[in-house]
Specification:
- The structure holds two protein chains of two kinds.
- By secondary structure, chain A is mostly helical.
- Chain A has nine helices and no strands.
- Chain A has helices spanning about 25-35, 45-60, 70-95, 100-110, 130-155, 160-185, 185-190, 200-205, 210-220.
- In chain A, helix 1 packs antiparallel against helix 2 (about 45-60), helix 1 (about 25-35) packs parallel to helix 3 (about 70-95) and helix 6 (about 160-185) runs antiparallel to helix 9.
- The longest helix of chain A has 27 residues, at about 160-185.
- Chain B has two helices and no strands.
- Classes of the chains: A mainly alpha, B mainly alpha.
- Chains A and B meet through helix 2, helix 3, helix 4, helix 5 and helix 6 of A and helix 1 and helix 2 of B.
């Protein structure tokens, strides 16, 4: 039986049910969403910083329910999921808008030529590169939303959040392997035409998350994820 | 302008719908395994592995936040509106 509605156990005593696991989680959610939109990015990290500072103080005071490691790792996963979801969703649904085209082609000129060359010329609009389009649809409809909800459920100490984080962690590994192949095979067209040629290294750095996330998830004390 | 506003609103609705569907699926269908009963919290040392992973994760998070803050303003300053 899954204890969906039970409060988090912090010391053997039943605590009254709260909206968030930690009081600063509202700030944390707002900060992650604002940061993850990228468009509102300059505001988001400030809100997120306030949330993390409040959470850090609760850790120092010993009043925290959630381990600090879980907070940091899941916050990273949530922001990472959102900043992948947001630009790809702009390209999927809003590639004809001024905001969408400015954002996506600007990113393309800086880092990845696939987001700039022949933009809006394909059958589905937006990115014309077919392999990029395939990964984009997988990310927008499956992996990234799954990543976002699992990170939040994990932060809220839900049983299914821990389980979903493992599933999305393995799927992320799958995405990293395929995306690296696609980027490498189209290197001349995609990376060499971009402003700094840094794109390949940048995405690889941040797509490495499964390598530290999965060891954490499989060694964590899972009895604490019991909401 | 109105055309863009409509498309962007549609995008937000679609995004919320996609995320809502995954939240529904996760919360209703995923727990195929039973949650172990909550045990009384004990004060134990944080494993070294967790400390290392937290530090790595923290620095990557800072990197992401720098990207979040700088990306769109940099695009506007370098290339302007399309």
């Amino acid at each position: 039986m899954v204890l969906k509605e039970s409060p988090v156990d912090v010391g053997g005593e039943q605590q009254p049910k709260k909206r968030w696991v930690e009081e600063a989680d509202g700030w944390l959610l707002a900060g992650c969403i604002l940061s993850g939109t990228m468009i509102l990015g300059p505001i988001g990290p400030i809100v997120l910083g306030i949330a993390l500072w409040k959470l850090y103080k609760s850790v120092k005071a010993g009043t925290n329910v959630r381990p600090w490691a879980a907070t940091v790792i899941a916050t990273f996963c949530m922001v990472d999921g959102l900043i992948n979801f947001s630009p790809w969703t702009f390209d999927t649904f809003a590639h004809n808008t001024v905001l969408g085209e400015t954002f996506i082609t600007g990113y393309g000129r800086f880092f990845d030529g696939a987001f700039y060359i022949d933009y809006n010329s394909g059958a589905l609009g937006g990115v014309a590169n077919t392999s990029e389009k395939m990964w984009q649809y997988l990310a927008v409809f499956i992996l990234m939303p799954m990543r976002i909800v699992s990170a939040w459920a994990f932060l809220q100490m839900r049983t299914w959040g821990l389980h979903f984080m493992k599933v999305s962690g393995w799927l992320y590994l799958f995405l990293w392997a395929g995306y690296t192949m696609a980027m490498s095979m189209d290197f001349e067209e995609r990376m060499a035409t971009s402003e700094f040629g840094l794109g390949w290294w940048l995405f690889n750095l941040f797509y490495l998350s499964p390598f530290f996330l999965l060891p954490y998830l499989y060694t964590v004390d899972k009895s604490r994820w019991c909401r | 302008m109105l055309h863009d506003a409509l498309i962007l609103s549609g995008m937000v609705v679609a995004d919320l719908l996609i995320i809502g569907v995954w939240w529904f699926l996760g919360s209703r269908l995923v727990p195929a395994e039973s949650s172990p009963p909550a045990v009384e919290a004990k004060l134990t040392k944080t494993p070294l592995l967790h400390k290392v992973l937290t530090v790595v994760s923290f620095f990557l998070l800072v990197g992401l936040l720098v990207e979040c803050m700088a990306m769109f303003p940099a695009i506007l300053m370098r290339f302007g509106w399309s």
